[in-house]
Specification:
Distance between the termini: 43 Å
Bound molecules: 2-amino-3-ketobutyric acid
Largest sheet: 7 strands, parallel
CATH class of the largest domain: Alpha Beta
CATH topology of the largest domain: Rossmann fold
Number of helices: 12
Oligomer: single chain
Strand order of the largest sheet: 3-2-1-4-5-6-10
Helix content: 40-55%
CATH architecture of the largest domain: 3-Layer(aba) Sandwich
Length: 312
Amino acid sequence: MQNYILIIGACGQIGTELTYALREKYGADQVIASDIREGNKDLMESGPFEILDATDYDALEEVVAYYEINEVYLMAAMLSATAEKFPERAWSLNMNSLFNVLNLGKEKKITKIFWPSSIAVFGANTPKNNTPQSAIMEPSTVYGISKQSGERWCEYNHRKYGVDVRSLRYPGLISWKTMPGGGTTDYAVEIYHKALSDGRYTCFLKEDTALPMMFMDDAIRATMELMDSEGKNIKIRSSYNLSAMSFTPAEIANSIRKRLPEFQMTCQPDFRQNIADTWPSSIDDSKAKSDWGWKAEFDLDATTETMLKNLK
Ligand code: AKB
């Protein structure tokens, strides 16, 4: 049977690179990109594309039937900072799109699902350093609440209906092909753009706020390795902790200064500081390592090197 893949939210920061990577692996025609609006020219020209609102079950079912889709990557979501401004819209998008995709799995219309969770599932009472896979979760943001609930729904659908749904708790993701939008960790991408364009950056977090981060190539590889793993190795059906590095705004600024010595950063914390203060500083991903062999490759300096080279 041919493996036809649908990516929902293909024009976003992760969706764009996932679309390229899956098209490279399976061939452009096997991978259907979709989003609520069109993406950049490169993406639009790289293979089939559908305008799709993932909260509309009938529209989603039609696309799945038309292309004989058997695998869905649901990357559409409203991220932490934007979701605080539009809590009900965020809940509706983040949860209804997940319900729709899980229901397709339950009805056996698709056979495999990837859904991203986040470090935002954790909260102020979670152990902050080397946060374990199973810990107290009391998320304080709408985004975090939607991800925590989503994790429970994934686990439930797997246990009760045998839905093959797999998930990762992404840390902040750093990439140069597409900008992130609306997240608390977005500063770690903006800083590289501003370092090159203005030689200075005003950070919206305090300089000593450590957060878990990952370069996009690692995140895409983790996603594909998880999806390629044999089902029996996927022992966690809520979502896996995933880790690569952890740094503060001061540390990323220092890493940039090794290449651009004149670079300056000042900090003016805003409402996003309150969100970051409730998130872990670093993550224990030993379950991902032992269950399906996860290993990160990019550290902070390798990330800085690659970001500056490509953004130039
Ligand atoms: C955000 O900052 O909201 C996201 C995330 C950590 O899930 N990048």
